[in-house]
Amino acid sequence: MNLFGKKKQAAPKLSETIQKLREALDILDKRERHLLKQIDQCVNEAKAKSKAKDKRGALFQLKRKKLYDKQVEQIQGKKQNIDMQIMALESAASNKEILDVMKIGKDALKAAIQATDVEKVEEVMEEMNEQIGMGEEISEAMAAPIGPVMDEDELARELEEMEAEMVDEELLEVPAVPSRAKEEVVPRPATVAEPKESKESKKALSKEEQELRELEALMGV
Description:
- The chain is mostly helical.
- Helix content is 76%, strand content 0%.
- The longest helix has 61 residues.
- About 2% of the residues have low confidence.
């Protein structure tokens, strides 16, 4: 309530205002069509008067036409202004709808943020990190080797001792190289009768056999 006791009028709704402006456009369109018909009629009568040599009558019809033309021009100006108002109101209505939706989104976001407690978020994140850490510890525990723990140094020493013993055994298994004087002839199988020969003949025979083998090798036998 203002100082003069008059109640402040509520602002008209955009949709109702746009509807009224469209109705005004329809009225102007009808008026314009009527005036255009009057203009055509004036032109036709002026032509008829001119053919009838009625100059004053023809001029009168042309004056009427000018007045109708002026009204049509004014109507077109009004229509243009109303069109501009309608476009501006439609744009304002669209902006209002978008603003209302944005306000709803803002309120929803505000309510969601208020419903989210920062301390609870931190608590949840800490619990998640703890669970992830426990999971990693469980994975490491399950991947650890099972069974008795072996001393790597002790195993290495035992391996060295075993290798040393193997080397000693190999040395013992190698036969001593006999001297030429004590060289013995390997006995042939029992199925072959071996003639008794002296040591000199055996040496000579083995030498001859060696030379024979060398000759056969040269000949490719």
